[in-house]
Amino acid sequence: MTTTENSASPWHSHAHRHPSAFLLAAQVLSLVLYAVFEGSPSGRAVLGTFGIMVLSLVVWVIKSSPRLRWITWILVVPTFLLSSASVLIDDPNLLFWAAVLEAALYFYAAGCLIAYMLEDVWVTSDELFAAGATFTLIAWGFAYAYLACQTWLPGSFSGATFSGKPEHFLELLYLSINNLSSAGLGDIVPVKAPARVLVMLEQVAGVGYITVVVSRLIGMTILRRRRSKRDRLS
Length: 234
Hints:
single chain; 234 residues; 2 strands
């Protein structure tokens, strides 16, 4: 085995053991890129290109059964095509459908990761990374849903300045993460009925995710540690 293969094998092993960690890291990195490039002349191209890379990671971490794999490809192919086109072409209709499909893909990926975390009674390190990655998937999914809503109904959301201009994706993502985490920061608010319905759905999703998934992982982790301690003492 060559030196290159030896150096590459640990990364290859980590990638297969912890794919959710790579997605979580990419989502966090995207926040840094949004802060740096948002509003700059080259920002749209940079953020769009990185967004497509993140979509590739989303597809990678989807854990679905073979009978459901066709759903993944039905979502992936048009999403990649429309997302790539929306980076190059500034068209509201194109942006709307790209946002709708990206939201659907993120929600589907979140559902697959939740099913992956609930399929057994043992908590692995990858499942802990998956818990964080799933939170970002839900947050990004609703952010794209907000973007589609805003494109379809201009003025659906209003910022603190009440300028009447469409909110940038970063502002919508900021709203989504605040809403999903119940932080309560309300400087960006839904104005029209469809936007308010989306916000309420995200609030329900956030409470349900914390109650069902995260609390279960915490409970199983505590139970596993107690069993391990009992086995050592016996």
